[in-house]
Structures are given as structure tokens and as C-alpha cells.
Specification:
Layout lengths: L2 E6 L6 H11 L4 E4 L5 H12 L5 H22 L2 E5 L7 H12 L4 E4 L9 H6 L2 E3 L2 H11 L2
Parallel strand pairs: 1-2, 1-3, 3-4, 4-5
Helix pairs in contact: 2-3
Length: 146
């Protein structure tokens, strides 16, 4: 059995590569999908596909349309979602993706540091499992295979 896991969260560092490597090391049969990890590609995809836009707002709107399509398609086809909240970056996209997972009845693992317990308390209480690290999230997934 293999599961597809949508990795929701910021795209500014290599946390997805870390989770992929750790899953491989543990021999977990997981396939990972997620948002476009190339920030420049994500920001410019609307104009690349839909053509030049007259202002920054419409550039962002066009990119959002294409990125939201990608997210919806990949998230809906996934078996579960890991939503990573960290200290460093704003987390609007992570919160949106976690909400989409909940609305779509996708099992949700919420990863957040202790410092974000209070701001994420409602979302955490809706998630199936809330953990504080990537390793704990992988422990939850490994338990499924026992």
C-alpha cells in the first residue's frame, strides 16, 4: 500500500526535501505532492500562461487562479495532508490548505511549534493529529503501516 501526502506550507526553505529524505530513510511508502516550490515560477505562472497583466494586483490574481487550481487538484487526489506552520514565515497559504483539507474530509496532520499553540488552537483542535516536528508527523504515518 502507498499513500499520497500533500505537503502544505511555506516554500521558502527545504522542509519538504527533509521530509522526503526522512520518509525514504524509514522506507515509508509515501508519495509527496504540494504547491509549486519554485517561488518565482509560482509568482509568475499567471502571466506566463494567461499573458501580460496590466498591474500587480492582476498579476497576483492570475497567478493565484493557476496556483489554486494546482492546489485543489493535488490536494483532492491526496490521501492525507501535512500542514507545517513555522516561526519564520507568514502562513496564510498553509492555513488555507489546512482548511481545504478539513472541508474535503482529508486526514490532517498539523505541525506547529510550541510557540504557535495559542494562535492555532482552533485549527489544531480540528486536525486529526497535532505534532511539533516533522519526525513526529512521520511517526504518525509510519504507525499506519504497522
Amino acid at each position: 500500500m502507498e499513500f499520497t501526502i500533500y505537503l502544505a506550507g511555506q516554500i521558502h526553505d527545504d522542509w519538504r526535501e527533509e521530509i522526503r529524505n526522512k520518509a525514504r530513510e524509514r522506507d515509508l511508502r509515501l508519495q509527496f505532492v504540494g504547491p509549486q516550490e519554485n517561488h518565482e515560477r509560482s509568482d509568475n505562472v499567471g502571466e506566463v500562461i494567461l499573458g501580460d497583466q496590466p498591474n500587480k494586483r492582476l498579476i497576483d490574481d492570475a497567478a493565484s487562479d493557476v496556483n489554486n487550481f494546482r492546489t485543489q487538484l493535488l490536494l483532492e487526489k491526496s490521501d492525507a495532508v501535512i500542514a507545517l506552520f513555522g516561526e519564520k514565515y507568514k502562513q496564510w497559504n498553509t492555513a488555507l490548505d489546512a482548511g481545504l483539507a478539513l472541508r474535503g474530509n482529508k486526514p490532517l496532520i498539523l505541525v506547529r511549534p510550541e510557540s504557535l499553540i495559542h494562535p492555532l488552537k482552533e485549527l489544531s483542535n480540528q486536525a486529526n493529529v497535532t505534532v511539533e516536528s516533522i519526525d513526529q508527523a512521520l511517526d504518525v504515518l509510519a504507525y499506519v503501516f504497522e
